[in-house]
């Protein structure tokens, strides 16, 4: 139904554009009216009246219809007063199924059959009613707006205003999504903290939410809860792996940036830069199996050759591959920043008799430092938020360790582990994922904020 | 007659296919101000940038011919360009202090070339350079403030202090006043008069009045050729070439 109706509305819209256009032209040529806008703006004006209110009404009808229908169909059962809300919604599903010809059980047959008839009737009626309302409204507004075209109406301004509203609504979508995500995270996190004290979560040294899962939610021991949700090992693992990643990506990325901006000939730059940036486009899951199947065994073999105990999944392997992954973030941004240091500073330094290296180390890097630091911070927040590589290469074992050769786990990995498979939604285990998510969100947001501030300070510098 | 400090001999400069300078030959006298004038794009900046080999930075730039400073060809393979630039300082059109403190700006050259023996030596060099550049009194209380925070004229004098901090023989000035207001310009011109007692100064300028005020010899460039070079009075009162005559009387350029 919806598809046909929407197509009809759009057809009306197109038709009314031509109608409006035509009417404006006629008014213009009959020379009585001196219209304020070009004819096609009147076309848009009429088309907007035809389409927008009709679509809004349709949206409202479809969102409230089901509620109304349910009330109406179940009215007999509600009148009995002996059903709870859950039972009522179950009943409604049963009625819907019966209407579709699926018969499950034969309780309350008379009442249900009555309700099925009601449902069929109301469905048919509401559909007809929707058609009449929406199309009628559209048609009426087309007529209204057509007759509204006169020399006092500035349709160009109205169209502009409508677009303004449209742009605003679109930007609102992203904003509302962010706000919504934050609030749902906050809500679930608060529920989690009502069961597990926030201090235990932030400072506890033991992370084993599986323990909570094996028992009935009812007889959870509070001490158990406290011991199961200490997130410090996850923070430590995240920090350790991000640190390893930065140890790889910062030197390699920065030196790449220096080479690209100061040494490489334009030819080399032209083909080398895109290739480096492709690194950022490789799906992280591909990095993940590269880490798990190639790097992790390699690290283990080398470690064992040196007489060390290395677990087959190690923080070192995951951190190393993650470091490779974020090289382009650093090299590309730093390259731009170094390049944007004014040429006059380079000349000033060369004119003092400085070599290229001295110029880079003593003038260019200090001048570009804030921007370079900004690129580091962006890379860190990327490293902290990365999941796949760690899941595949660093293991799932939440062990508090600073040894890069040991298995480690991160915040994101644990969220994955917690939410894989079927979950009870109100168990503290599931809710802990939201707490972890919020922590991650806050940390990443803070890093991004600092990065933006640093970059902003930098851009003010040469103005 | 003063002794000759710099001598250019049949200098040809190319930017890729395009020739920017044609057979330029001229000399510049020691501890004098030599001005180079001419319309935009005439090659005077290209010429001055040959004197400290700043054109090396540009990949497509090719220099043919000979430039001798104190009788040594600076384009000889044995010439170390860093050492050359230590002896031939440069001040640019737009003030370009490093984004460092005033002190560090001036200390940059001495640090690179290892001129100062110790910290007090370095401080002495910085203070002396700032004094010579007539900037010390204005900044003595804030040597650790950013050099970029100074006014345009002060920044340019800071750049002059930076250039003389390594005690060069020659200072090249590429339109040093074109970004400054008249008062700051007057100060720089006054400064040049003081500096020429110690340094050989070559200045590129768009302002004929400035050339007349500060220089003892003037060269006129046009379309990549050195049209005429002579005593400044002669150039401005009795030029031998018609093009010079036209330029200084404002008929073109």
Helix content of chain B: 25-40%
Examine the coordinates and then state which fold CATH places here, giving the name of the CATH topology of chain B: Rossmann fold
Looking at the chains present, what oligomeric state does this protein adopt?
heterodimer
Strand content of chain A: under 5%
Provide the number of structural domains of chain A: 2
Q: What global shape of chain B is seen?
A: globular
Average of pLDDT of chain A: 85
CATH C-level label of the largest domain in chain A:
Mainly Alpha
Kindly provide the radius of gyration of chain A, computed on alpha-carbon positions and rounded to a whole number of angstroms.
Answer: 32 Å
User: How many helical elements of chain A?
Assistant: 18
Instruction: Examine the secondary-structure arrangement and name the CATH architecture of chain B.
Output: 3-Layer(aba) Sandwich
Name the helix and strand elements of chain A from N-terminus to C-terminus, one letter apiece: HHHHHHHHHHHHHHHHHH
Main beta-sheet strand count, sense and barrel state of chain B: 6 strands, mixed
Low-confidence stretches of chain A: none
Integer average pLDDT of chain B: 92
Query: Number of domains in the coordinates of chain B?
Result: 1
- Apparent shape of chain A: flat
Helix count of chain B, per DSSP?
Answer: 10
Q: Low-confidence parts of chain B lasting 5 or more residues at pLDDT below 50?
A: none
Please name the fourth-level CATH homologous superfamily of the largest domain in chain A. MetI-like
């Amino acid at each position: 139904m919806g598809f046909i109706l929407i197509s009809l509305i759009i057809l009306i819209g197109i038709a009314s554009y031509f109608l409006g256009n035509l009417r404006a032209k006629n008014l213009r040529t009959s020379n009585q009216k001196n219209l304020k806008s070009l004819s096609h703006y009147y076309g848009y004006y009429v088309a907007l009246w035809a389409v927008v209110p009709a679509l809004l009404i349709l949206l409202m009808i479809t969102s409230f219809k089901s509620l109304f229908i349910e009330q109406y169909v179940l009215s007999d059962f509600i009148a009995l007063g002996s059903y709870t809300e859950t039972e009522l919604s179950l009943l409604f599903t049963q009625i819907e199924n019966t209407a579709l010809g699926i018969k499950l059980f034969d309780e309350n047959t008379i009442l249900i059959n009555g309700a099925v008839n009601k449902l069929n009737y109301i469905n048919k009626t509401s559909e007809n009613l929707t058609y009449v309302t929406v199309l009628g409204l559209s048609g009426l507004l087309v007529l209204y707006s057509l007759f509204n075209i006169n020399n006092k109406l500035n349709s160009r301004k109205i169209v502009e205003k409508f677009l303004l509203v449209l742009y605003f609504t679109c930007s609102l979508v992203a904003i509302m999504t962010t706000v919504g995500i934050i609030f749902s995270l906050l809500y679930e996190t608060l529920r989690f903290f009502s069961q597990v004290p926030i201090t235990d979560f932030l400072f506890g040294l033991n992370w084993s939410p599986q323990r909570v899962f094996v028992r009935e939610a009812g007889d959870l021991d509070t001490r158990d809860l406290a011991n199961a949700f200490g997130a410090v090992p996850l923070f430590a693992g995240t920090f350790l792996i991000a640190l390893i990643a930065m140890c790889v990506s910062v030197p390699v990325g920065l030196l790449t940036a220096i080479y690209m901006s100061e040494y490489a000939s334009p030819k080399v730059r032209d083909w080398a830069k895109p290739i480096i940036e492709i690194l950022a486009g490789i799906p992280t899951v591909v990095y993940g199996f590269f880490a798990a199947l190639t790097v992790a065994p390699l690290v283990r073999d080398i470690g064992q050759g040196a007489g060390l105990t290395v677990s087959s999944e190690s923080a070192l392997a995951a951190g190393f591959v993650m470091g490779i992954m974020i090289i382009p973030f650093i090299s590309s941004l730093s390259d731009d920043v170094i390049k944007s240091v004014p040429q006059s500073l380079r000349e000033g330094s060369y004119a003092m008799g400085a070599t290229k290296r001295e110029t880079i180390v003593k003038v260019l890097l200090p001048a570009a430092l804030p921007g370079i630091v900004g690129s580091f911070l962006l890379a860190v927040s990327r490293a902290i938020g990365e999941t796949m590589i760690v899941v595949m290469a660093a293991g799932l074992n939440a062990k508090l360790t600073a040894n890069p050769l040991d298995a480690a786990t991160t915040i994101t990995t644990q969220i994955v582990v917690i939410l894989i498979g079927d979950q009870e939604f109100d168990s503290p285990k599931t809710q802990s994922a939201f707490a972890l998510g919020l922590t991650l969100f806050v940390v990443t947001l803070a890093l991004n904020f600092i990065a933006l501030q640093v970059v902003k300070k930098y851009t003010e510098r040469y103005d | 007659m003063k002794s000759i400090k710099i001598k250019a001999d049949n200098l040809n400069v190319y930017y890729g296919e395009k020739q920017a300078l044609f057979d330029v030959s001229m000399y510049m006298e020691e501890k004098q101000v030599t001005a180079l004038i001419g319309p935009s794009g005439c090659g005077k900046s290209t010429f001055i940038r040959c004197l400290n080999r700043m054109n090396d930075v540009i990949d497509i730039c090719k220099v043919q011919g000979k430039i001798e400073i104190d009788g040594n060809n600076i384009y000889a393979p044995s010439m170390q360009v860093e050492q050359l630039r230590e002896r031939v300082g440069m001040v640019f059109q737009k003030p370009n202090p490093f984004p460092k403190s005033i002190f560090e700006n001036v200390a940059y050259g001495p640090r690179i070339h290892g001129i100062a023996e110790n910290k007090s030596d370095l401080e002495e060099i910085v203070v002396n350079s700032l004094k010579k550049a007539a900037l010390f009194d204005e900044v003595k209380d804030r040597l650790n403030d950013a050099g970029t925070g100074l006014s345009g004229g002060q920044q340019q004098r800071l750049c002059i202090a930076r250039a003389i901090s390594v005690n060069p023989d020659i200072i090249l000035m590429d339109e040093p006043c074109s970004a400054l207001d008249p008062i700051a310009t007057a100060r720089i011109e006054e400064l040049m008069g003081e500096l020429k007692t110690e340094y050989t100064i070559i200045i590129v300028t768009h302002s004929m009045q400035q050339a007349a005020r500060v220089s003892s010899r003037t060269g006129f460039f046009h379309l990549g050729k050195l049209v005429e070079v002579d005593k400044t009075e002669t150039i401005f009162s009795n030029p031998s070439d018609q093009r010079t005559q036209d330029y200084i009387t404002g008929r073109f350029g």
